[in-house]
Amino acid sequence: MFTKITRKHINNTKPKLRISPTVVAFIGTIIIMIGGFFLSYNYINSKKVMAYDYMNNVFVAEASENGIEEENIIGDSDTGENISVDPNQYIGTLIIDKIGFNKGFYPKESEYNDVDKNLLLVKEADYPNVAKGNLIIAGHSGTAWNSFFNDLYKLAVGDTAKVVYNNKTYTYKFVNIYKAPKVGNISIYRNQNRTTLTLVTCTNFDKTTQTIYIGELQSVE
């Protein structure tokens, strides 16, 4: 004979699952560490933005004594152009020998004047032949196929860039490189008595800021 085993017997004989205090303490420690990491990360980021704001404010205070003013890229500007161009053809080329960069850009009204397709000539930009104007070009950084400005981080104050436009070569020297929080718009600090080139891109390995490169015109050939 044998004893018939029913579900009641199985339920009554099933051992209870117990978690040791050591495991509970370990899990609690991990949760606390993760929470602390996110709190610290947010705190550091907030301090970083404050630091950039402070640096920019200091720069503006010093710059005001040297003829440098803040210029928000909002509004229209005079392009100084009276020539007819094909909006789907390059009208100029940006060349930076130090990093082996050579890339054309389209007129502002072109469908290809798009940071996701090419370099972006922002709507507030002046063309190179505008005296005391500001040619503003933006581009992506990163690892995607359209990250044309990924190597800009290798540039330093004193390096040069050239823009070939309307059969002339404009040579600029970078006089300032600074970071700003990525908040959807930027302020450009430049000497408005000089003709300038401004390059804008996301900061490498930092999703919270963008880097601005200010070049001043040195010669036209």
What would you say this structure looks like, in words?
The protein folds into two domains: 19-66; 73-220, Sortase (Sortase, Chain: A). Helix content is 23%, strand content 30%. The protein contains two helices and ten strands; from the N terminus they run ααββββββββββ. It has helices at residues 7-13, 21-63; strands at residues 68-72, 92-96, 101-105, 120-121, 134-138, 160-165, 168-181, 187-191, 196-202, 209-220. The strands form two sheets. The protein has an eight-stranded mixed β-sheet. A hairpin with a 6-residue loop joins strand 9 and strand 10 (209-220). The longest helix is centred in the N-terminal third of the chain and has 43 residues, at 21-63. The radius of gyration is 28 Å and the shape is elongated. 22% of the residues are buried. The model is unreliable at 1-13, 44-68 and 73-83 (pLDDT under 50).
Tally of DSSP helical segments: 2
Q: How many domain units?
A: 2
Any idea what the shape is? Answer: elongated
Identify the CATH class of the largest domain: Mainly Beta
Kindly provide the radius of gyration, computed on alpha-carbon positions and rounded to a whole number of angstroms. 28 Å
Question: Runs with pLDDT <50, length 5+?
Answer: 1-13, 44-68, 73-83
Per DSSP E runs of 2 or more residues, the count of β-strands stands at: 10
The CATH architecture classification of the largest domain is Beta Barrel
The pLDDT mean sits at 77
What are the secondary-structure elements, in order, as H or E? HHEEEEEEEEEE
- Please describe the biggest sheet, giving its number of strands, its sense, and whether it closes into a barrel: 8 strands, mixed
Helix content: 10-25%
**Beta fraction:** 25-35%
The side-by-side strand order for the widest beta sheet comes to 3-2-6-7-10-9-5-4
CATH topology of the largest domain: Sortase, Chain: A
**Between the first and last Cα atoms, what is the distance in angstroms?**
110 Å
From the helix content, strand content and strand pairing, which structural class follows? Answer: alpha+beta
- What is the CATH H-level superfamily of the largest domain? Sortase
